[in-house]
Specification:
287 residues, disordered C terminus
Amino acid sequence: MWAVNYAVAKIAPGIISPHVLALGRWSLAGLILAFIAREELWRERAGTLKVWPQYLTLGFLGMLICGAWVYWAGETTTAINIALIYSASPVLITLGAVLGLKERFSFKQGVGIFIALLGVLHVVVKGQWAALSQVIWVVGDGLIVIAMMSWAAYALLLKKWPSPLSSTARLAATCIGGSAVLLPFALFEWFATSHPDWSVNATALVLLAAVFPGVGAYWAYGFCQKTLGASRVAASLYLGPLYGSLVGWFLLNESLGLHHAVGAVLILPGIFLASQRPPDDTLHTER
């Protein structure tokens, strides 16, 4: 579901502007989730309003930077590059979880992270390690680097700020915060800059982004992190280069080479090792 967003980011330029797309995505996702969790949100409204700065912060990190800026990046970089750079975020998440959240981390998990990261780097350099110093960065790549760091912060803060809300209700509240942060940027983009006219294709992109990488992917990630912990779930993001490359190749006609297959051979076992719980560690589940 997350990989759908890489295709949306590449298709959107010329159809809908980045912040308008992100606002449409998260406003619609928020409405869907708020309807599903309406009873819980109303029951917990007082406690939720007391921590409103948290939801604005999560919205800024996870929905403005990791939403609008990804679509902005799609104007100059490829879907495969977006997936590849994003895949480095588990390293930051794991480091933050160990240092800041005091999560345990075993040697086996460390080996898994190293192997998976090696696979990611192999794909980045297209299997040509001698060309590592010749990598050319574009604006879009830089935006994705910032988004990658922002996602790590978002994931860690989700764990650092425990909530009595269910995953659905919490994501609905975060969507409201994200929409509030996105609104002034989207209004500026719509009224103060040149932009494409609204079209059927723009509506389709908003719907696609809201349902799959919006409601589906974020809800699943939040639910898994709440039950499994930040560092274990972060390892799953190494699948990004594989799914992103397939989406870029199948839907966008981006090149898919042997180096992607070699990277997969490294990434998949790395995820398996990195997702293993340390010995004597028990599964902590927040209710």
